[in-house]
Design a protein that fits this description.
Length: about 160
């Protein structure tokens, strides 16, 4: 009887340890700091690692001017094939659960998110998108990502505005 109890206890301990071992990361891009604040909160809440997606060339305020249809962000967002370069490459292969955060640009995820996903080994991973915006929903950006990257296990997106 004692042996049975200690066997069951050991089983529970092993199950508990392997549940804790589910590695989670919050990867985010933020041009002006809003998404960064949310990402830091999420990482703390979920006891997750955090990774900043950084462009090789930072976005200046001129680059972010959506009123100018020739600004860098406007040009990139008009071109669905634009893939702005990353400062460094990063694999997320070691993680089981990936939160991926971005600001909504023209109802979509900034193209640097595509660059990142395409080099990060995320096929088969559980990915939870989150975004901040000036009011637009996250829906269109998530359906776009889902159709471009069908091998990822996408969870529903979370718009986290104040
Ligand atoms: C180029 C550009 C396009 C944007 N397009 C949208 C949009 O379509 N809808 C919206 O609600 N907000 C839009 N915004 C506002 C941002 O989504 C919002 O300010 C966001 O919280 C910024 O996050 P960040 O500080 O992490 O970069 C846009 C901002 C920029 C710079």
């Amino acid at each position: 009887m004692n042996k049975l109890i200690s066997f069951i206890l050991t089983l529970f301990i092993i199950m508990g340890l392997s549940a804790q071992n589910k590695k989670t990361v919050v990867a985010y891009f933020s041009a002006s700091g809003v998404t960064e604040g949310v990402a830091k909160r999420l990482a703390k809440e979920h006891n997750a690692d955090i990774y900043t997606i950084e462009p090789a060339q930072k976005y200046t305020s001129d680059d972010l001017n959506w009123r100018n249809n020739k600004s860098r962000s406007s040009v990139e967002m008009k071109d669905s094939k634009a893939r702005p370069a990353l400062k460094e490459s990063k694999s997320l292969a070691q993680y089981d659960v990936i939160y991926i955060g971005y600001p909504i640009w023209w109802n979509l995820a900034p193209r640097i998110i595509n660059t990142f996903i395409e080099q990060a080994d995320m096929d088969g991973k559980t990915v939870i998108p989150f975004a901040t915006s000036g009011g637009s929903s996250i829906t269109q950006s998530v359906s776009d990502l889902k159709s471009l990257y069908p091998n990822i296990k996408w969870q529903s997106g979370m718009l986290i505005n104040r």
